[in-house]
Amino acid sequence: MAALGVGAGSLVSCTRTGAGDTLQRAQEEGVIKVGIANEKPFGYKEGDKVTGQAPELARAIFKRLGIDTMQAETVTFDALPDSLNNETFDVIAAGMFITPERCDAVIFSNPDYCMQTALLILKGSPAEGAASFEDVAANPDIKLGTMGTGVVEYGWALESGVPEEQITPGFDDQATAVRALANGQIHALALTRLSLQTQLESDPNPNLELSEPFFPVIDGEEQAGCGGFGFRKSDTALRDAFNAELEKMQESGEVYEIVKPFGILKEEVDAAAEKTASSLCNAKA
Q1: Domains of the chain, with CATH numbers?
Q2: pLDDT tens digits, residue range 176-216?
């Protein structure tokens, strides 16, 4: 993926106007490229069309900034920050949670949603009845799946006492992870409640059940997964312009109108409007 990112970046480098000038270049050309992980409902492709919670919101904001065309590049979720910095694309539009670790690699917009976590569980497995990471930690027979080692669910599981050897990370996409769950390779899959709910709706399986959504509790504090858009550290002008339009749309209610078709709840949009990227970046890791 690193080699691919460098190669893809070199192909578009001739259009760059220099570090930190992505906003100016995009406004002049009328084109900006976003990175997605092809995960419903956050950012995915339907045929040639790129859609999802993050791309649709990004598309609306970029149009307000005078950038009418949005293109997309698909990479695995864990590869998004490196691919951004390799200039494979200009913005991460994948519903990525804002965490202190990720803030070391990229700068984020303010969040546009905050969401609970859930477990998708294989019925009849050792995980049946589990409703938290603590429940998983309490049963060494449970095999927990996460989408990678860089996702927040992996870190939350470890901090909740789940031994590393109980966790199977690194699935290419949600569908692959759910197939592994249905085949018994893992007993529970941890993701946002919306990701898992969407997966079940698109591919129902009577052998799988969704836990009640929950906020993981680390050191006595609830951990809300708040998603935003990622930018290169040199692109503060683009991030700031994006934030200014995002704030206007949060105040007007436009954000909710754009994202509600993808299952985002109004309370999840409202909760995000009360937080900033700075507060999430500086949260206790």
Answers
A1: 2-114+226-281 (3.40.190.10), 117-222 (3.40.190.10)
A2: 999 999 999 999 999 988 889 988 888 899 999 999 988 89
